[in-house]
Design brief:
Elements: H1 2-14, E1 18-19, H2 20-23, E2 32-36, E3 39-43, E4 62-66, E5 89-91, E6 114-116, E7 129-130, H3 133-136, E8 143-145, E9 153-154, E10 167-169, H4 180-183, E11 191-193, E12 201-202, E13 215-217, E14 225-226, E15 239-241, E16 263-265, H5 276-279, E17 287-289, H6 299-303, E18 312-314, E19 336-338, E20 360-362, H7 373-376, E21 384-386, E22 408-410, E23 432-434, E24 457-459, E25 478-480, E26 502-504, E27 526-528, E28 549-551, E29 559-560, E30 573-575, E31 583-584, E32 589-590, E33 597-599, E34 613-614, E35 626-628, E36 650-652, H8 663-668, E37 674-676, E38 684-685, E39 698-700, E40 708-709, E41 722-724, E42 741-747, E43 766-773
Parallel strand pairs: 3-4, 4-5, 5-6, 6-8, 7-9, 8-10, 10-11, 11-13, 12-14, 13-15, 15-16, 16-17, 17-18, 18-19, 19-20, 20-21, 21-22, 22-23, 23-24, 24-25, 25-26, 26-27, 27-28, 28-30, 29-31, 30-33, 32-34, 33-35, 35-36, 36-37, 37-39, 38-40, 39-41, 41-42, 42-43
Antiparallel strand pairs: 1-2, 2-3
Protein name: Toll-5
Pfam families: LRR_8
InterPro entries: Dev_Immune_Receptor (IPR050328), Leu-rich_rpt (IPR001611), Leu-rich_rpt_typical-subtyp (IPR003591), LRR_dom_sf (IPR032675)
Length: about 775
């Protein structure tokens, strides 16, 4: 296993992002890169370039470039022209771009397939009609995203030349109607998203210019009317989303011509009945979603007549009070029926007559008092039944006798107090049983008899269990026992669960764990022991396994002994926060090569040392990305303690007792993006304390009592974008303290500043000041 784990780790690392400079010395920009099959993708998200857009290496095989959330307001001309790159995807979304300069994407006309400019300001009040010859030049484009740009109209010639365009996103704008004229000629357009606009009517001619559409989303608009024949030109349409509009009715002919429509979403409207006359023409309809309407009776379902193609019907969250006999009689092909969150107190014996193909039935939150076993006898193929949030108090072999073929049964959040012997004795196919949130106090092995050879998921959380039987389920994958009254576990509790991968024991009263408790479950991946009363962990409790996540937060652990988590080769996340840990033994985290997240916050640690970690797998260091040491008693940091963790991106020392922060830590951590040192006792920021950190973006130094800052404290940390110096004792700032920063949000509130240097924010020093907070500074 050891050798195999090394190979697995190596493969995983090969697919990860790395700083671009590590990939090639020609890539000097402060971004992350990925190389797959000799094709390079550059990720410059959140990176603000100082000066002009950098010149990328000539004819390097760069196929993707993204720079989202970088505060860009304008893109200069010929961004990629001189580099002559085979770019297929460019993403400048989530910036502040107001227009596209001439020739901005010159050189990409023949290769660019995917352009994303969403969440910008291309349709601001000065330019509500979006027109750009630069987009018209991209004749190879297949996907274009202009969503969330405040666009009210598209110029009629904007898209005419984009004959290869297949996907167009123009959601989240301010269109009052479908921009039919601008869509003319897009013969290959398959996907059109128009959600979150201000469209109030679908006219007969609205979509006549896009006959090839397969997917259309007009949800979250203000549509009150669909004219007869409103979609009749869309003979290829497969999916139509009209949810979250203002439809109270649909006239006959509204869906005329949609001969291939398979999915129709009418949820979250104001329909008072199933619009049978409009739906009858949909001969290929498979999925009909009507949840969150005002439907009170199901006469419209009866009026649908035989609709053999319909497989899924969702009527969740309506006002349905009863299920009359024969309601679904003609829906013989229906496979999924959702009736949750209605007012169906009683289910008539013949309510499901005719549902000979039904496999999934949801009756959650319907005030049902008992399992409608007679009605369910009509549904011979049922494999999944959900009765959560009802008032079922008793289940037994007799009340379940007509559904013994189930694969999944959920009766969570009811008032079941016991499981009689033999309740599931005939359930030889049941794979998932959910009894979360009931009143079970005891559980005898005989009550689950019959499930041994099939059960894979068992949820007994939020009950009143204080003891557990020895579970014997050879195929069980997931076991949830959270929020019970369990105070002790026998060492052999899980011996007969060889396939267990997820175990949740959180929110119980456990004070200790038998050393060998988890040894039999060698395939365990996720373990949650949070919010118990565990006082100690011992070396060897977490044996070499496939475990990926361990959660021990909110216990009473005082010490992490030597070798506690030794050789957990696949451990990704370890949460030890909110304990009373005072010491960590040497090698406590020995040989955990894939650990990404370590939370030690809210403990009583006096220090953090390198000796906690050792690696036997050859590597440059750990894979740790997130380290939280906040809310401890740390007074001093040793820079060498962080040398093994050069891939850290997020680091917090907030709420400790540091009076000095070693500059070497930041210099060692070249990938660090977030550093939090709030509420310590640092009085002075020395020269280069936070300098030369190429990726540092967020630095929190509030509430330290800082009195002075050296002029070069942040030198060459050009990506610093959020700097919090609030609640300190600053009386003055050096004139060049922010020199070289590209763009910055600065908080100087609650200090003793009476003035600022006249040119401190001059553009030659700081390219763009996004905001500055000077509240409650002394005048």
């Amino acid at each position: 296993m050891f050798v195999w784990a090394i190979l697995a780790a190596t493969a995983w690392l090969g697919a990860a992002q790395v700083p671009c400079a590590e990939l090639s010395d020609q890539l000097t920009l402060p971004c992350m890169c990925t190389a797959v099959d000799n094709e390079i993708s550059i990720d410059c998200d959140n990176v603000a370039f100082t000066g002009d857009f950098p010149l990328l290496p000539f004819r390097m095989n760069i196929v993707e470039f993204t720079q989202r959330n970088a505060g860009i307001q304008a893109l200069r001309r010929q961004l990629f022209t001189a580099s002559d790159l085979p770019l297929r995807k460019v993403d400048f979304s989530r910036n502040g771009i107001r227009r596209l300069n001439k020739d901005v994407l010159e050189g990409l006309e023949d290769d660019l397939l995917d352009l994303r400019l969403d969440h910008n300001l291309l349709g601001n009040n000065y330019n509500p009609i979006f027109a750009s010859q630069e987009i018209a030049k991209l004749t190879a484009l297949q996907t274009l995203n202009l969503g969330y740009n405040h666009i009210k109209e598209l110029d009629t010639g904007l898209l005419t030349s984009l004959k290869e365009l297949q996907v167009l996103h123009i959601e989240g704008n301010s269109f009052l109607s479908v921009p039919s004229a601008a869509l003319k000629g897009l013969t290959n357009l398959k996907v059109l998203t128009l959600e979150e606009n201000d469209i109030d009517n679908i006219k007969r001619s609205s979509l006549s210019t896009t006959p090839g559409l397969v997917f259309l989303n007009v949800s979250h608009n203000k549509i009150v009317n669909v004219e007869e024949g409103g979609f009749q030109e869309l003979g290829e349409l497969v999916t139509l989303d009209l949810s979250f509009n203002r439809l109270s009715s649909l006239r006959p002919g509204a869906f005329r011509g949609l001969v291939k429509l398979e999915e129709l979403d009418l949820s979250s409207n104001f329909l008072t009945e199933v619009p049978a006359d409009a739906l009858k023409e949909l001969s290929s309809l498979r999925t009909l979603v009507l949840h969150d309407n005002l439907i009170q009776n199901l006469g419209g379902v009866v009026a649908l007549g035989p609709m053999a193609s319909l497989q899924q019907l969702d009527l969740t969250r309506n006002n349905i009070g009863e299920l009359p006999t024969g309601t679904f009689r003609q829906l013989t092909g229906l496979q999924t029926l959702k009736l949750a969150v209605n007012s169906i107190r009683k289910v008539e014996d013949d309510a499901f007559e005719g549902l000979e193909s039904l496999q999934t039935l949801q009756l959650d939150d319907d005030n049902i008092l008992s399992i409608p076993w007679i009605a369910l006898a009509k549904v011979q193929k049922l494999t999944s039944l959900t009765l959560d949030y009802n008032r079922v108090g008793v289940i037994s072999s007799s009340s379940l006798q007509t559904v013994t073929g189930l694969h999944s049964l959920s009766i969570a959040h009811n008032i079941i107090r016991e499981l009689p012997q033999g309740t599931f004795s005939n359930f030889t196919d049941l794979q998932s049983l959910n009894l979360y949130g009931n009143k079970l106090q005891n559980l005898i092995p005989e009550s689950l008899l019959g499930l041994r050879e099939s059960l894979k998921e068992l949820n007994l959380g939020l009950n009143l269990l204080s003891e557990l039987p020895q579970f014997d389920f050879p195929l069980l994958d997931t076991l949830v026992l959270s929020r019970n009254n369990i105070s002790a576990l026998p060492s052999d509790a899980f011996v007969l669960l060889p396939e267990l991968r997820t175990l949740d024991l959180s929110h119980n009263h456990l004070t200790r764990l038998p050393v060998t408790l988890l040894h039999p479950v060698s395939k365990l991946s996720t373990l949650d022991l949070s919010r118990n009363r565990i006082e100690e962990i011992k070396a060897g409790q977490f044996n070499e396994s496939f475990i990926n996540v361990i959660n021990l937060q909110h216990n009473k652990i005082m010490e992490i002994p030597r070798d506690s988590f030794k050789d957990l080769l696949f451990l990704h996340t370890l949460d030890l926060s909110h304990n009373v840990i005072r010491s960590v033994g040497e090698g406590a985290f020995l040989n955990i090569p894939l650990l990404h997240i370590l939370r030690l916050n809210n403990n009583m640690l006096p220090s953090f040392k390198q000796k906690y970690f050792r690696l036997t797998i050859p590597a440059e260091g750990t894979e740790l990305r997130i380290l939280d040491l906040s809310h401890n008693d740390i007074t001093f940091l040793q820079p060498q303690a962080f040398q093994l963790h050069s891939k850290l991106t997020w680091l917090s020392f907030a709420h400790n007792r540091l009076s000095f922060f070693p500059a070497e830590i930041v210099q060692e951590l070249a990938q660090l993006e977030h550093l939090d040192i709030e509420s310590n006792a640092i009085k002075t920021l020395e020269s280069s304390d936070f300098a030369n950190s190429p990726r540092l973006r967020e630095l929190n130094l509030q509430s330290n009592g800082i009195e002075t800052i050296a002029e070069t404290a942040f030198q060459n940390s050009s990506q610093l974008q959020e700097l919090n110096l609030s609640h300190n004792n600053l009386e003055e700032l050096p004139a060049d303290v922010f020199l070289g920063i590209a763009w910055l949000q600065l908080d100087l509130s609650h200090n003793k500043l009476s003035s600022l240097p006249e040119l401190i924010f001059q553009r030659t020093k700081i390219e763009k000041l996004l905001s500055v907070n000077l509240a409650r500074s002394e005048e």
